[in-house]
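Margin note: ligand = adenosine-5'-triphosphate.
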Amino acid sequence: MDISRSFGGARALDGVSFRIGKGEVLCLLGHNGAGKSTLVSILATALPPTSGTARVAGHDVLREPREVRRRIGLTGQFAAVDENLSGRDNLVLVARLLGARRAEAGRRAAELLDAFDLNAAADRPARTYSGGMRRRLDLASSFVGSPQVLFLDEPTTGLDPVSRAALWDLVRSCVAEGTTVLLTTQYLEEAEQLADRVIVLGHGRTIADGTVAQLKGRLGGSTVRAQLADPARSPAAAEALRRAGLEAVPGEPEGTVAVPVRESAALAAVVRALDEVGVIIKEISLTEPTLDDVYLALAEGTETAAGVPVAS
Ligand SMILES: Nc1ncnc2c1ncn2[C@@H]1O[C@H](COP(=O)(O)OP(=O)(O)OP(=O)(O)O)[C@@H](O)[C@H]1O
Ligand SMILES: [Mg+2]
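Resulting structure:
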């Protein structure tokens, strides 16, 4: 791999490498402009890398793009649907382009219309679809060829919770049949639901790579979150915590302090530190790290507040 891609002088990807095993799900997380879509485009042979190359389903994206294309499914961030055709005809068209006979194409289209809950609108032109329906139709078309490798670029953006859960089920059933999935997402819950492995991109580089559990582990521990009775006391609270050897993390709403801690006993230390300076606590909680915390810490390009470097 070692894939880089520049646009003009700007580096969108800077030496990214990874492997995914057959039947695994890799989630690519990263802020807007991190390079997720660029990476997906390169792996799906839609865009050449400036340097480096990759093998997808056993074939080189630069030397054997046709072989790669026959084995992949792709749903881009922006729906590619023929507005004048019905949902059914869109799917039949894709199946025919992939070489299916008419009857087989019809059968596959019917299956997918069912799986993506589009039956009621199947024979209406796609231009009459709602945004979420169009999104589902676009997704359905990436499943037509029963691909070995499926690329899903923000597949659930704009979907309602029911459709989102339906897509997750569909991804899981593809994976159970051996399909490899690379998906990008802004939803951390999605990574937690689906990913065997997560790669976080930041400005075109891999800033973290591991399982959801490993990423959480790197955050180092739990967080004590205290809501102050008087938001104006936030600076005093932060100062008292610092004196006690505890460091509040930035970015919390006014009147809340969040302190990463190594063990639950530190909860008492937080209470003591605040009590000493007369800061009254309205509510206090001890929470396990979530992927959200990991993502935020990485997205800020900082070390975690616990002082553990998160970049690998
Ligand atoms: N065709 C292009 N021409 C010029 N610059 C581009 C092009 N495509 C992408 N870029 C730039 O490359 C960088 C990475 O873009 P990319 O679309 O891969 O990000 P992303 O992680 O998918 O973001 P988002 O979450 O917003 O979809 C951005 O700075 C973007 O402006
Ligand atoms: Mg994108």
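Residues 36-37, 77, 153 surround magnesium ion (ligand 2) (CB under 6 Å).
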